[in-house]
Write a structure and sequence with these properties.
- This protein has a single domain, classed as Rossmann fold (3-Layer(aba) Sandwich).
- It has 9 helices and 8 strands.
- It is globular.
- The longest helix is centred in the N-terminal third of the chain and has 26 residues.
- The protein has 330 residues and is α/β, with parallel strands linked by helices.
- Bound molecules: NADP nicotinamide-adenine-dinucleotide phosphate (NAP).
- The site of NADP nicotinamide-adenine-dinucleotide phosphate (NAP) has 28 residues, from helix 2.
């Protein structure tokens, strides 16, 4: 009897373990270890989560990685941690606060001045804030739209000349599956018109979803605007990964128990989340002909958007964003 129970328990655990391994196999793993020596990558938000693991994977292959972080102490802690196991390549921390247009301009100028080439820009940094109150960037933009979209929009535009000089080059922008629930309301891009009947009644993360949709539409328009050059624009859904992104979301103890099966089967490690990002930044199998596409699980992904988009909307988002960050005024 005891013997039979043991067999049932062991078989159950083995089954769950194998199911997890099967899921990990489906998520994909970028195994190519070709040398990236002599190539320079910028990774925004490289001190934590997917950005840090992306930086780790790139230096493993000998790359020079500019870790664009808002907090220099956290950047140094991340470098020290990576250096415990990886001694190749170069890690350079530089200050970049995507919630400040001034900081983005200062960062871009110093990168353009100090580095002869930038081969790949990885727009990874992101915020997810649950607050129902308006939270804004230093320039007064709604935080998610301001950091996740506008910050990377300005950064990319300021570095476009450098990326063009460094061709073939790439811009990889980290979006999310949640972009499928996003919407772009040109009358309320910055959520100024938030009323009881609009955004505050939607899911608490609607602003995040919108910003992640903007990441994807930005990639599509960037691919059009760089069609004549050898710059490739790609977007990535990294998958649900164990990082600091949801640090602001407090959960009750019983929610952890309720969600544990979901976490076991769906949550990747930060390194597993970084695999598609690294693949898009590095792989020879992803090329110019894929520009404007989005990737997930180390393969092309076809999102099911609730929002109907087309090239005119994507171009309009670009123009409006340029105006918001003062790009046309330069
Ligand atoms: N984790 C997931 O399940 C998941 C799923 C889909 C998509 N994503 C996307 O993956 C990307 C990476 O997120 P993560 O999961 O790795 O989260 P994370 O561990 O919280 O990392 C986010 C990074 O962005 C940085 N950041 C935030 N605001 C910034 C600002 N104003 N200026 C510069 N850097 C800033 C953070 O810096 P600090 O450490 O100083 O805060 C941190 O380095 C994000 O774009 C996120 O939307 C994540």
């Amino acid at each position: 009897m005891v013997h039979n129970s043991m067999i049932v328990v062991i078989s159950t655990f083995l089954g769950l373990f194998l199911l997890r391994k099967y899921r990990e196999f489906k998520w994909g793993y970028f195994k190519n270890m070709n040398s990236l020596k002599g190539k320079t990558y910028i990774v925004t938000g490289a001190n934590s989560g997917i950005g840090k693991e992306t930086a780790r994977e790139l230096v493993k292959r000998g790359a020079c990685v500019i870790m664009a972080c808002r907090n220099m102490s956290l950047a140094q802690i991340a470098i020290d941690d990576i250096r415990k196991t990886v001694l190749t390549g170069e890690l350079i921390a530089k200050r970049l606060d995507l919630a400040s247009l001034d900081s983005i301009r200062t960062f871009s100028s110093s990168v353009i001045r100090d580095f002869p080439q930038i081969n790949v820009l990885i727009n990874n940094a992101g915020v997810y804030v649950n607050s129902k109150d308006a939270v804004t960037t230093r320039d007064g933009f709604e935080l998610h739209f301001g950091v996740n979209h506008l910050g990377h929009f300005l950064l990319t535009n300021l570095l476009l000349g450098k990326l063009s000089e460094s061709q073939p080059s790439r811009v990889v922008t980290v979006s999310s599956l949640l972009m499928q629930s996003g919407q772009i309301d040109f009358e309320n891009l910055n959520c100024e018109k938030e009323t009881v009947n609009s955004l505050s009644n939607m899911r608490s993360n609607q602003k995040y979803c919108n910003s992640k949709l903007a990441n994807f539409l930005f990639t599509r328009e960037l691919s059009r605007r760089t069609a004549e050059s050898d710059i490739t624009a790609l977007a990535v859904c990294p998958g649900f990964a164990y990082t600091n992104l949801f640090r602001d979301s407090s959960r009750k103890w019983y929610q952890y128990i309720l969600f544990s099966p979901i976490i076991y089967f769906y949550m990747r490690s930060a390194n597993q989340g970084a695999q598609t990002v690294v693949m898009c930044a590095v792989s020879d199998e992803v090329g110019k002909e894929h520009s404007g596409q989005i990737y997930r699980d180390c393969k092309q992904f076809h999102p099911k958007l609730k929002f109907t988009t087309n090239p005119a909307i994507e171009a309009k988002l670009w123009d409006v964003s340029a105006e918001m960050v003062g790009l046309l005024l330069k």
